[in-house]
Design goal:
4 copies of one chain form a homotetramer.
Chain A lengths: L12 H23 L2 H8 L4 H7 L2 H10 L15 H11 L23 H20 L9 H23 L10 H16 L9
The structure holds a DNA duplex (21 and 21 nucleotides).
Protein name (chains A, B, C, D): TetR family transcriptional regulator
InterPro entries (chains A, B, C, D): Homeodomain-like_sf, HTH-type_TetR-like_transc_reg, HTH_TetR, Tet_transcr_reg_TetR-rel_C_sf, TetR_C_16
Keywords (chains A, B, C, D): DNA-binding
DNA sequence: AATGAATGAGCTTTCATTCAT
DNA sequence: GATGAATGAAAGCTCATTCAT
């Protein structure tokens, strides 16, 4: 569907692997694990089906690689630095309608469902815990580890997941086409509500 | 798994149909569309596989019926009446760990994914719009239909969806086992943040 | 290859199962486990491939059923009764060229190779031990259980297995086309050599 | 598994070919034709898979070479010389439990099954006829070529084949672990029974 | 109304083989 | 001479669906 770009890309293992990985990521993100067939992934990548076994061993291996190669940073180059405004900004961009054009959908969707394999579950949990930690780090308050604070950060993660899921599954308007600008205000309000007033502007 | 209650329930169309529907709802909710097999649904219901065709025509027909039969009320018997505290209360109960024991998971999960069929999409959209409307109705402010207010309500719906999805997919703690009491505070904060301060207690 | 007899034999579970079993037995006997494909077995039986799953669950299930349904009696209706001449007679008939026309080969061939599955191994071992016991029973001597006597009986079983294998694999002449009459003399000599002179003609 | 001896054995065609051949012989003997995969053979030999094509052209080519390179001598360095005792001795050693440690199983097992290819069949037949001839030569009687005598020699070959097959396939005890000493007596009896009393010790 | 036999299509996986380098 | 990338065909298995009682 995508990369079958005429020239058969012969004899380039790295490129072939990469093409398969990207095709898989797109399909897994949009269609889920069961909805994705290896034949179609191979066709998208423009290579032979059996190469999936060669490079990823099995469908599960391909899925794990796809999950592992998914972007995890919430915000800028080095994650989200420490203040509330930047967190709101990062989230509103991440959750806007036209983010992730190369996936077709928000990549977090790949983290959901399938279940069963313990290793996959661990990967998914780790990814989401990563998001939670980034939110806490970016919330501009000390690392006081009280459980309610953790719960509140997880609720913010849940909000993000829910936005991605709803957009992908049913496309409610106006959420479906919301721009970063439209989301920034409401998200900032939610962040403040969940994480409390920003701790003193430490830096003057 | 459930209703194979010995006596073969011969010749009771309505009961048979109902048994199939409930079995299907449970499986679709927990395992998704692809993960649910008609044989198992029929076995759960204790009836013959071919009756699914008779009553629902096809797997998709069964799925549609399951979606259509899913509870839509956010709160009490007639939805959520008009004040902020009750909305927070209803949501915290709905999203707590042990709600919906008869489904195994939060029923909203059935509304997600599969896609493709236009009719199914319409059903799902309608269900989620229903939630949005109930939230707006329950938010204690006038029905001023500005789009941002709608977006903010949808974000609250997204939060709920996200909680259900995360709990089902990966089970982050402490969110996974959160009780209604643990959720009430944070949710109240989010509600207030998204829907603004409650309009003056109209009734004096 | 065999039973695709025009009329599709619709709606007769027992007959369908039987047809599959016979087709499987023929193929397993001639071609071994790996050499037998379920598609061909189904084609031979003139039924759909998926029915193998229905009736035997898997290839291994089919194989087990085929082994279990294989004849085990060395001789007459009730095994080999007690004297040397009848044992020689039974063996020479069993190992002659044109025995087992309905299998294509000697059914003992199905008992060989594949390995791996413990349950299958047990079935095979039991079948061959059955033969050994029948030989000892038919040897006209007391049941003195000394190990060498057991070893000698097993060598006789080995001779039978070897004849079947050689005939099937390479077809050495004159062994390949040997008639019961041609085999009786040599086999009688071997039996006597292995099991010792017949114990006193009891009914002297 | 065997020859991956560190240094990549570069540029030594004969050694590479030999390593492949030995690895193939081991696998074919233990696992049969279908159970042997070329990738594993190549891995055992520590060489690249494609070299099998270079040296043996195909899986069948490799199999033919493996068959052709299998030991055919029944007894000592120059086959079995002429007397009955030595034949029994040679056979009992050949058929004992721990003969052929370098194959894992008795090499005659490679001669069985697969079928189909005429050339392979000819090789196998020739090998078994070789055994038959050695037996007749070693039986201490004149080369009177009557067919029954041939049949009797073939039955002895069949006994050997059967022992190897049973040991490999199911492992009946006590045959499975029989030592040369345990086999010598019974085999001597069978030899005498099949080939008749030794003709006068011609050589004084 | 209800049952269970039968089917066709499609999936993942496995291999021998071929092709560039 | 040797390597590793790439391919095509076929296998076992699963499932929604249809057909005959």
């Amino acid at each position: 569907m995508a990369d079958a770009s005429g020239a058969p890309r012969r004899r380039d293992a790295a490129a072939t692997r990469q093409a398969l990985l990207e095709a898989a990521r797109r399909r897994f993100t949009r269609l889920g694990y069961d909805g994705t067939t290896l034949r179609e992934v191979a066709a998208d990548a423009g290579v032979n089906l059996a190469l999936i076994k060669r490079y990823f061993d099995s469908k599960e291996g391909l899925f794990k690689a796809a999950i592992a190669s998914t972007p995890r940073a919430l915000g800028g180059p080095a994650g989200v630095p420490g203040d509330r405004a930047r967190l709101a900004d990062a989230l509103s961009r991440q959750l806007s309608a036209d983010a992730w054009p190369e996936f077709g959908e928000h990549p977090v969707l790949m983290l959901l469902r399938v279940s069963g394999d313990e290793q996959v579950d661990a990967l998914r949990r780790a990814a989401l815990q990563d998001f939670t930690r980034q939110i806490l780090d970016g919330s501009g308050t000390g690392p006081e580890k009280d459980p309610e604070r953790l719960l509140r950060a997880e609720l913010l993660v849940a909000l993000g997941v829910g936005v991605a899921v709803i957009r992908s599954a049913v496309g409610l308007q106006p959420l479906r086409d919301a721009t970063p600008d439209a989301l920034r205000g409401p998200l900032r309000d939610v962040i403040d509500a969940l994480l409390g007033p920003e701790s003193e502007p430490v830096e003057g």
